[in-house]
């Protein structure tokens, strides 16, 4: 995966368009309206001119799309006016538009359906979101550019400031004349001061985010150590029930950021921020930390620690204790013991553990042996190091649950988690792995649920546990509880890709397709290159009857996964023969891929074949493999009662028989 520094951005002039009230239309109306809107857009002179110069990129969305012009700031405005004039002939089409110029990133265009991303796209959508039907809203940046042209000045009407998603404030202008646009102030602006008053919940006073620590060591390879100290301080704090502590994965997006502390705190929903730096040289370490009141942007407490390496746990404990004191958090005796714990006396084992955690977080792919090796080396040096055993268990359990490693690794996952808990039964992360062993491998739901609940007692701020518990509840059809758990996970870890994807997935499982689409759109807003989110979004679009959008997202997923030829064939087949033929063709190509993997001796779960056979329309082949899918100890088996993709099989009596035989011991609930 390329780093942010490797990505090339350029300024794009973006016109974002959508159909107001789209989700309330009947499916055939949605398709008709979208096609009519596309015809109108494609017929504009601005569109055709930019296309002739190869200065136009299109990004379809569920209810409209974005046009990115590489020509001038005037281009999207002219295009919007042309569209607005034509729309007067189609009163049934209630459309709004937003325009912004900003940084965009382009990838290889797929027959004019390439994927584009960047702040320019995101802000243009925010601009549009502030309007109602008929509005053409422009950002202040665009208005400033247009002010240089006499023809535009009379059309620009200052609306004031609008606070939108993620705490961003936008200064907006309404563009209209006697002929085009909507002269009425948008509903969101109809206040006495002509600006939006957004009431945002006040962050709890006892809430904190620990930002990534700066690595000041001369050896830049010591970044693993700085990251590890940040994570361990955060882990100690998260054990305190009286504090709200944001998970590490969400704070990582603010590494090396230029954003101001109050803005970061607002996005994370916290009152305090901890910043820090670490310098490690040989067996000496310097840790500098400062606790900041985000609202006042003022220091609450700061400290510098110059210690020997084997004193690092005392430093972490002291920092956690001082923060709790500064935020006036109440600690139980158990919580005091938890934040002062010393999991190992071996500094070498600790460093190996930190390296394993660093590689797990930053580079882990199933089969990446260095993760396993670091944890194994750590327990070889200290056979009583509970977190390192837990790391080994998670390594195996995560891959087995996702059907990446074969089922025969489950005994190792169980052995290591039970060893970890025998050494320290208060280590919260071990209960996440134990829950996986119990639900996927042992099919013992009461034991899994007990593990989830025990882990959350020990660490009420552990977002991963809430997310995993929510997903497991969805397998049982307990969707209200599942959604509540996942929403709690998102509060604790708002920017973690996996949690956001899980939320969209369980909404998909519960057949709440509009909500699933909105959540997956938000996920792709945060992470435009997230292949799994594109794939699920495609599945959601298919269930909503939005075939064009489904193909677009599936193509994005294939491209991001390095299967550009499959994407090309899928798109060509869709254009030539329609949606059903395209899906069948994709299934055939994926079947070839699965057979090739198996021929190479790689493990392929039966579930993957079942899903591919459904795409191919070969339901008998899918049904034949269904018993094997149900037997295999992974999350695909437990999805059987809720996953809409299995819908074509449900009417066959054999499906019910297999489902009845899938013995997941449940509570009386």
Structure summary:
With 669 residues, the protein is α/β, with parallel strands linked by helices. It is 52% helix and 14% strand.
Describe the overall structure:
By secondary structure, the protein is of the alpha/beta class. 52% of the residues lie in helices and 14% in strands. It has 28 helices and 14 strands. The strands form 2 sheets. Strands 1, 2, 3, 4, 5, 6, 7 and 8 form an 8-stranded mixed sheet that branches. Strands 9, 10, 11, 12, 13 and 14 form a 6-stranded mixed sheet that branches. It is globular.
Strand content: 5-15%
Shape designation? globular
The structure class reads alpha/beta
Taking the alpha carbons of the first and last residues, their distance comes to: 43 Å
Q: How would you state the average pLDDT, rounded?
A: 87
Rg, Å, rounded: 27 Å
Helix content: 40-55%
Count of extended strands: 14
- What is the helix tally? 28
Q: Uncertain spans, ≥5 residues at pLDDT below 50?
A: 1-9, 107-114, 192-200
Largest sheet, in brief, is: 8 strands, mixed
Keyphrases for this structure?
669 residues; alpha/beta; 8-stranded mixed beta sheet; 6-stranded mixed beta sheet; 28 helices; disordered N terminus
Write the layout of secondary structure elements.
Elements: E1 10-19, H1 27-43, H2 45-52, E2 56-61, E3 64-69, H3 74-87, E4 95-106, E5 116-117, H4 119-129, E6 136-139, H5 140-146, E7 156-163, E8 169-175, E9 207-210, E10 214-215, H6 223-238, E11 244-245, H7 248-251, H8 261-268, E12 272-281, E13 284-293, E14 298-308, H9 312-326, H10 333-339, H11 347-362, H12 369-381, H13 386-401, H14 410-423, H15 428-441, H16 445-458, H17 463-475, H18 479-492, H19 497-509, H20 513-526, H21 531-543, H22 547-560, H23 564-577, H24 579-599, H25 606-616, H26 619-631, H27 635-638, H28 653-661
Parallel strand pairs: 4-6, 9-11, 9-12, 10-12
Antiparallel strand pairs: 1-3, 1-4, 2-3, 4-5, 6-8, 7-8, 12-13, 13-14
Helix pairs in contact: 2-3, 6-9, 6-11, 11-12, 11-13, 12-13, 13-14, 13-15, 14-15, 15-16, 15-17, 17-18, 17-19, 18-19, 19-20, 19-21, 20-21, 21-22, 22-23, 23-24, 24-25, 25-26, 26-28
């Amino acid at each position: 995966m390329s780093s942010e520094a490797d990505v090339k951005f350029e300024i794009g002039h973006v016109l974002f368009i959508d159909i107001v009230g789209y989700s309330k239309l009947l499916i055939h109306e949605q398709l008709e309206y979208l096609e009519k809107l596309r015809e109108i857009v494609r017929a504009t002179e601005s569109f055709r001119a930019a296309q002739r110069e190869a200065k136009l990129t299109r990004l379809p969305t569920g209810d409209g799309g974005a046009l990115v012009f590489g020509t001038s700031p005037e281009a999207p405005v002219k295009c919007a006016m042309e569209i607005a004039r034509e729309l007067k002939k189609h009163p049934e089409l209630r459309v709004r538009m937003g325009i912004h110029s900003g940084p965009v990133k382009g990838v290889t265009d797929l027959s004019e359906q390439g994927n584009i991303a960047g702040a320019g796209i995101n802000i243009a959508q925010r601009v549009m979101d502030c309007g109602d039907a008929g509005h053409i809203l422009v950002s202040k940046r665009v208005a400033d550019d247009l002010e240089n042209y006499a023809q535009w000045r009379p059309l620009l009407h200052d609306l004031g400031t609008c606070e939108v998603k993620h705490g961003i404030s936008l200064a907006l202008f309404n563009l209209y004349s006697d002929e085009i646009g909507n002269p009425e102030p948008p509903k969101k602006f109809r206040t006495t001061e002509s600006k939006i008053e957004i009431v945002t919940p006040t962050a709890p006073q006892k809430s904190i985010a620990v930002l990534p620590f700066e690595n000041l060591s001369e050896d830049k390879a010591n970044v693993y150590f700085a990251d590890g100290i940040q994570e361990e301080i955060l882990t100690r704090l998260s054990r305190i029930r009286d504090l709200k502590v944001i998970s590490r994965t969400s704070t990582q997006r603010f590494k090396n950021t230029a954003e101001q502390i109050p803005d970061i705190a607002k996005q994370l929903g916290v009152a305090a921020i901890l910043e820090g730096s670490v310098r490690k040289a040989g067996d000496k370490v310097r840790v500098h930390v400062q606790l900041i009141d985000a609202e006042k942007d003022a220091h609450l407490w700061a400290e510098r620690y110059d210690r020997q390496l084997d004193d690092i746990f005392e430093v972490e404990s002291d920092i956690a204790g001082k923060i709790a004191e500064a935020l006036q958090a109440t600690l139980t005796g158990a919580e005091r013991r938890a934040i002062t714990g010393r999991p190992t006396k071996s500094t070498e084992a600790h460093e190996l553990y930190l390296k394993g955690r660093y590689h797990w977080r930053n580079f882990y792919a199933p089969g990446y042996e260095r993760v396993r090796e670091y944890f194994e080396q750590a327990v070889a040096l200290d056979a009583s190091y509970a977190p390192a055993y837990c790391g080994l268990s998670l390594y195996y359990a995560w891959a087995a649950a996702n059907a990446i490693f074969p089922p025969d690794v489950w005994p190792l996952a169980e052995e290591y988690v039970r060893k970890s808990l025998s050494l320290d039964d208060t280590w919260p992360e071990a209960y996440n792995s134990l829950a996986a062993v119990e639900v996927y491998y042992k099919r013992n739901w009461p034991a899994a649920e007990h593990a989830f609940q025990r882990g959350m007692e020990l660490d009420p701020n552990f977002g991963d546990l809430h997310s995993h518990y929510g997903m497991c509840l969805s397998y049982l059809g307990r969707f209200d509880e599942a959604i509540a758990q996942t929403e709690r996970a998102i509060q604790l870890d708002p920017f973690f890709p996996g949690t956001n994807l899980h939320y969209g997935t369980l909404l998909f499982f519960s057949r709440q397709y509009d909500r699933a689409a909105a959540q997956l759109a938000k996920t792709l807003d945060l992470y435009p290159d997230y292949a799994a989110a594109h794939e699920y979004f495609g599945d959601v679009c298919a269930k909503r009857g939005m075939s064009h959008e489904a193909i677009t997202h599936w193509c994005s997923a294939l491209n991001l996964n390095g299967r550009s030829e499959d994407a090309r064939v899928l798109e060509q087949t869709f254009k030539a023969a329609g949606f059903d033929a395209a899906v069948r063709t994709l299934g055939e190509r994926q079947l070839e891929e699965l057979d090739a993997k198996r021929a190479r001796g790689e493990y392929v779960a039966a579930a993957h074949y079942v899903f591919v056979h459904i795409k191919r329309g070969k339901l008998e082949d899918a049904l034949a493999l269904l018993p094997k899918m149900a037997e295999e100890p992974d999350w695909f088996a437990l999805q059987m009662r809720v996953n809409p993709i299995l819908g074509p099989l449900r009417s066959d009596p054999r499906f019910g028989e297999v489902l009845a035989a899938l013995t997941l011991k449940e509570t009386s609930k």
